[in-house]
Amino acid sequence: MNGTTDDVREPQPIRVLIADDQPLVRRGLALILTPDPAFEVVGEAADGEEAVALAHRLRPDVVVMDIRMPVLDGVAATGRLARELPGCRVLALSTFDMDEYVVAALRAGAFGFLPKDISPEELVAAVRVVHTGEAAVAPRLMTRLISTYVRAPERPGPPLARVDGLTPREAEVWRLMATGLDNAEIAEAMSVSGSTVKNHITGLFGKLGVRDRAQAVIAAYETGVVEVGRPG
Question: Which of 19, 96, 118, 176 could form a disulfide with 51 if both were Cys (CB 3.0 to 4.6 A apart)?
């Protein structure tokens, strides 16, 4: 009872920059996030060039980035932010469920992708997830994302030596992850604990040289661990 409650600090709000060439969309996104004290919308940008400039000045935690914008598109802007401000995480948005820019955005360094028809609750959850460094890709888009990606002419993928270095458990986690299961579902399928699954995922990411779940799933299709239309 010595006043220790005075030392308890409120968590800092997640600083968000919104980048979209449509003022109405920017305002709508801001109106979704602003009422929640967990977020602080620090700025709005009308194109990718402005988004990069504002990110350098305002240092947001998360940039909600439209894919298709004038001057500098969202993919190019994402690539610049990944190189210049690695602590700033990008959540890419698109009007369309699937287009050729989505995988490019993930490869450029985006931590997630969502269509613009998501609910306000889904947007809030995705910003939180991206802020923690996890991937946020709308589940309904994952198969279509991969299907589009494997048709692309260039699919570098991780070296086979790295793939061969996986333990049987890591390989199984990878396969189940690529079929769309979350950690709890993987744990149930393998009859192990959630913490064990997390440990396997950490080892898997390190050996594959990928940053997050989305990149791991792409790598699974690149290397033939899972084939489109033949999950698992």
Answer: 19
Angle at which helices 168-178 and 183-190 pack, to 10 degrees?
130
Rounded Cα distance, 231 and 151, in Å = 17
Ranges under pLDDT 70 in the chain: 1-10, 96-101, 138-164, 224-232
With b for 16 or more beta-carbon neighbours within 10 A and e for fewer, the 81-93 pattern comes to bbeebeebbbbbb
Each residue of 209-232: pLDDT tens digit? Answer: 877 777 787 777 777 666 554 444
CA dist., res. 37 & res. 47, Å (int): 27
pLDDT at residue number 157: 47
Closest CA to 91 of 117, 47, 124, 119: 124
Closest C-alpha to 50, from 28, 65, 62, 31? 65
